[in-house]
Specification:
Layout lengths: L4 H19 L3 H9 L2 H8 L9 H14 L6
Helix pairs in contact: 1-2, 1-4
Length: 74
């Protein structure tokens, strides 16, 4: 299923903001990590309708991926 591109961009923005707040990092760092993440790739490709998951769920997935890459909150 393909999501509306405008709605998808808004969802990305919400997730990046939540992620930055949760990890205590700057928005530009959060955005850079997001656009290079597996979560973003899956959402963009519409795999398993990832874009239909809640913002909280996707943020948690992103945090897990961030921790798995050896990143830690400050």
């Amino acid at each position: 299923m393909n999501a509306n591109p405008i709605l998808l961009q808004k969802k990305y923005a919400r997730i990046v903001k939540r992620f930055a707040d949760a990890e205590g990092i700057f928005l530009d760092e959060a955005l850079d990590f997001f656009y290079h993440s597996e979560v973003y790739q899956l959402m963009r490709e519409g795999v398993s309708d990832m874009h239909c998951m809640s913002d909280a769920y996707l943020t948690d997935d992103l945090k897990t991926e961030y921790a798995g890459k050896g990143k830690t909150a400050v």
